[in-house]
# Entry
Amino acid sequence: MNANRAAKREIVDGIKDKIQRASSFVIIDYKGLTVAEDTQLRNEFRKAEVEYKVLKNTLVKIALNELGYTDFDEALNGPTAIAFSYGDAIAPAKVAVSNIKKLNKMQVKCGMLDKKFVDEATVQALSKVPSKETLLAMLLSVLQAPVRGLAVALNEIAKKAQ
# Structure
């Protein structure tokens, strides 16, 4: 095996590792971004603890195919970047879609969530899901509502009894 082929094999193995460890990823067409916009995008992904990489389509395709994913082959054409998240599964979709709206230059191609292919529409829908903290606050509010209502009713009864 020559040195070039060995280097490519190492890159493919690295990509496979990222895919296997990721809770989700989003494949983005970043065509038209300036260097400043790309730097800003990278910073926003970094703040959200998302790894943003520009990778060769053929190497990503090989890695995905070796892992048994063939749904992504069509999306791996043209300028492609991948945003991997190892924690919050919704973070890459949120950052990507918010920047697409802001910059009006990129496009989400597809993604992966829970080791399953998701299309562009699903990624768009995921970007609208509130954060975990917001969802927990909403749940807590819903759980507290009956108790709060009971406390108010009992307080009113106590006021009338006096």
